[in-house]
Amino acid sequence: MKIAKVFPIEKEINKEFDDREIASDKSISHRSAMFSLLANGESRVENFLEAEDTQNTLKIVEQLGAKIERKDGAIYITSSGKAEEPIDVLDCGNSGTGIRLFSGLLSSQEGSFVLTGDKYLRRRPMKRVTKPLKDIGAFLDGRENGNLAPLFIRGGKVKSFNYDSKIASAQVKSALILAGLFGDEKSYYKEPEQSRDHTERMLSGMGVDINKRDDGVIEITPISDPLQPLDIKVPTDPSSAFFFAVATAIVPNSKTVFKNMLLNDTRIEAFKVLQRMGAKIEFIERDRKYESIGDIIVEYAPLKGVEVSENISWLIDEIPALAIAMSVAEGESIVKNAEELRVKESDRIEAVVDNLKSCDVKVVEFEDGFRVTGGEIQPAVIDSFGDHRIAMSFAIAGLLVGMRVEDIECVDTSFPNFFEILSEFTKVEQ
What are the catalytic residues? Predict the structure, then answer.
């Protein structure tokens, strides 16, 4: 088991991150590879995230018949517009996005497919995706009646659908949209609140007729021809940058500039929560093609407690890092309506609460969140639970008091150079 010892920082953070330091956006990297498989011709993807999760997605796309070539700092993906039946199992590694989106995509492709992952992914519940896919005619099964990977899919024609989701999940929505692209007629999808909308934006840019009505219903028109190839530069991932935004917000006199950031409203909600807590944050838009892209400037200021109960699907990945900010803020903070945290790479409610208690932080666990009383955080031995965001969040807490974080191999799935960057500010032993 690999560990990291993070020692307390001795001075303020003052840094400008360019678009090659912070990890590229994982959500868009996954989708750019997958969606290129459905395009007829050559797609160009610049600044693709070179992490384990996204590399696994790229390998699967290659197993499904696409040609992958790296040249001139970009990845070129050439496809005929459909998936070919692979001769081997498709390994998604640790990626819930990978296995859930591929479940939708492959359900509507001719052939037989087996999706699996690492020991952590094979424990994660899949029924939230497999059940609606079965409901629209997909032939899909797995352990516990399709709830656990490995998942077996015999792809083919699926029925159109009118699906009212009870949860706001970009993964569930994307899986259904991808299946609906090959339905027999127009399909409809609705969720209780808007989740991250990269799938809709990117597919629309590739020629799909996909619209969101005033009542929130998404209309998906089946495609009769392959998609148009992508030509995209993946922006910097705000979810990855957010760890260092929290670091800036908790280390006195610090200031950080993040360049070429994805500024999609559904991706910067955590920054806005940190802003409500008192941190000085500025957003500067510089480009708008597939997505809004620009710079984010973060400056230290004393933090105060906050309630987080709305737009949870917009900041679900950042809540562990927000919990660190809450632990040192003045007053009480509460997270509610966040049941989705229990089915991420780990049960993140349990992981956050257990580790905060180890740090002598006063915290109370709820079924849908937790309450934190801010003050001081103490050094501790941290169990990452195999979850990259838990590992990185508590490593950031180590800037204040020092931390020993165990089982950090998971960080390579999304942010391979995280500890390298962290070591610019303080001593890190691995």
Answer: 317
